[in-house]
Amino acid sequence: MIVLSTELRPPGSDGGEAIGRLAVESGAAGVHIGGGCDLELLATAPLLATAMRLGLEVPSLLLPLPDRPLGAGKRLPRLAATAADERAAAVDLAERALSMAGAFGARAAEVDFGAVFLAASPGDFARHFARRACAPGEPGADLLQRALDERKALRPAILDGCRWSIERLLRAAERTGTRLAVRLAATPWQAPTPRELGDLQDTFGARLEVAWDPGRLSVLAALGLPVSETRLKALAAGAAIAVENDAVGLAPGYLPGLGERAEAVGQAPIAAAAVRVVTGAADSTDEEIRSAVGRTASAPAVDEGAG
Question: b/e per residue, 264-293, with b = 16+ CB within 10 A?
Fold first, then answer.
């Protein structure tokens, strides 16, 4: 199933009319509740009513969602936060979204654990990367190594925070029959990394799945932190959600066809049962979005019962 993410046409101003009609015109089967949505919008239900009227499904959503549109300078609480009160606030938002998801039949949720705050500045690194000053011995390489060292030291605390949040979210997801798919980190300034996801899956087993994200995985490759081909194939084949997007430099989230994918990432067949979420910028044209849906429909998939 291919769906359009609300990032492409945020529904706050029109109740989802634009994203719904674009889904119909592009041949997508439904809408993914992502960027531009909040709990208040879901509670008043204009997006869901529009989708039903147009014969569209709403099979997936992003967690957590804010109560209402975030003001300037505001951010969501993080599920991976080391502070218990921040984690609890994030879990509360996610649980409320999951309770609504059960009502409209969403079967998969992409879980964003949020940023990791390091002393090494991501903004400074991005500037070095843009200047191509990241070769060994250059400022960007030194800063990235400091970030990786700092991130390694924080790893036990970050994993503890993730486990605490996951335990609670799995209970809520089981009540609504929703699969949880973890959004992977694209940089040391996010969580969890592919290795950390492996640790979390060792703890929680098959109940914890992955959101396959070629844009994010391509950023890891650009940083010189690629995931092995064997691991990539396993992640793709076991995905509950596939977030179809490309990367440009350090920025994922470009509409498929408007950016790049690391070669090994682009070749990995995705689970046939995964909800395939086409996402990109709100200023993407209708024609670009239709092309991205066609590109996604022709991408390789693997039958989970094969082999």
Answer: bbeebebbebbbbbbbbeeebeeebbebbb
